[in-house]
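Aim 2, interim progress: modelling of the zinc ion-bound target.
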Amino acid sequence: MYKALYRAYRPEVFEQLLGQDHVKKILKNQLKADTISHAYLFCGTRGTGKTTTARLLAKGLNCLSEGDKPCGQCSNCQAISNGTFIDVVEIDAASNRGIDQVKELRESINYPPFTGSKKVYIIDEVHMLTPEAFNALLKTLEEPPHYVVFILATTEPQKLPATILSRCVHLDFRRVPERIIAEGMKNICGELGIEVTESALRIIAANADGSVRDGLSILDQCVTGSRGKVDTAEVLEYLGASGEEAMLELTDMVIRGRTADAIGCISNLLESGREAKQLMNDWIQHYRNLLMARFIRDPQEVINLSVENIDRIREQAQMMEPEEISRGIMELSKTLNEAKWSPKPRILLELCVVNLSNRGDLTKAMPAMKKIEPKTKAEVKKEAESPAAEGPAEDVFTETEAGAVEDEPAPKGEEGHDLLTLWDQVFNDGSASKGSMYLIRSNSMLSSMDESSFTVTVSGDMNRRHLENNRKLIEDLMEGRTGSRRHMKIEMNEGAPEEVSVEEAAAQAASLIGIPVDIE
Ligand SMILES: Nc1ncnc2c1ncn2[C@@H]1O[C@H](COP(=O)(O)OP(=O)(O)OP(=O)(O)O)[C@@H](O)[C@H]1O
Ligand SMILES: [Mg+2]
Ligand SMILES: [Zn+2]
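Predicted structure of the complex, ligand included:
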């Protein structure tokens, strides 16, 4: 039978546990010095190794090896891995809220270990216990026999009664850094003979958002779907631009006024199985994160994402006006509210995209939207005769296979390249090397090109620096697209930014999302 990678692969010794260095250190020392406490609480994000570590500790306490414990090899270690070791009891509080099991526990706890040296009770998802079960547990936690060790694990410690919290040694499981997840997956792939490129692993790690299990799960799906070596293209195809990446992209499209691309992106997301209302929720969450990143000095306190993703959000937030962020939150909330009653939430979402990407100015959006609709020859002719007589087209939002919808004809370079398209292609080519490339794409325009050079117009000093730092890459990518080497010239766009009241935007947004907003 096929077993998911994250089940098939579970660390057997502390060295295999990725990240969580502080936890490893404490537990290894306590095992060595024989100073183990009688109750632990493992808390933290899902998929970061809580259950795994609970089993490692249970093994360490019962390991027969003379050397480092757990050894992962002796009969006790192996029995614990297989779940056949009588003195290690795992209780899943989520399954039936633990009532019967806690009762059983209270009885069995009075018998000393059968084969091992410690009796270990692992209570997973402990926040799910019923109040009765908590009470029963509390009694045993107060004065457990010397041969008993409790390991409670939860993603939601705030749901635990203080009486329980105060009786345990707390260990926090943190999101594992991308680099460590990528390296870990590389080793696992090596062991299992899975072929995958390093850049593919990097993208998987970025989308795991700090959870090793999520990383392994994405890897697993990509391997299953691939014929041979897993590469970047396959990973991106599998991810179908999901998760944080999709929200960054989508937001990027609307702030650059790329209405048709944004509607296309929505269409892809919905086709890959997302639900329109869920998408709205995710997107509001993303805007909320942008707001936090914009106004709060240490957004990691309030944004529940990996450090790397928070950095990406911060970059995006920095290139947006506060007013733009608050408009996003408000438009989306309004849309979500209306969508609750609508049988066609998708249309509302598409309307919202049009609104956002045209900064609420629909008169500006109209000519662009007109072009989305396929026209008959007669219509085209009629339009040519009287270009001003146009009414808004209905149903236009449901048409998603839109072509380019630039308001003005795209500028052309001397060799007849469509500069807008060319610039987009260059960044698509370079999109694997995310980070600052992503920023550059959002803030720059290819404004002209001749035989020996091309000029990029950019706004903001930081963006100019990003552009300069990536000069070689961009010149390479341009060469790849046009076939000849050109020097990049950088030109600053001096357009004055729109006037906005930061305080006002913050106050509005704060009242909307119910969190006080600090202004730096
Ligand atoms: N820190 C880690 N190092 C190595 N592998 C890990 C780590 N964290 C999770 N994994 C992988 O993910 C799987 C699930 O991990 P585990 O059950 O320990 O997570 P958890 O923190 O208990 O998650 P949950 O909160 O959902 O119960 C493991 O079998 C292993 O393959
Ligand atoms: Mg667990
Ligand atoms: Zn052992």
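The radius of gyration is 28 Å. The chain has four domains: 5-173, 178-239, 243-398, 419-492.
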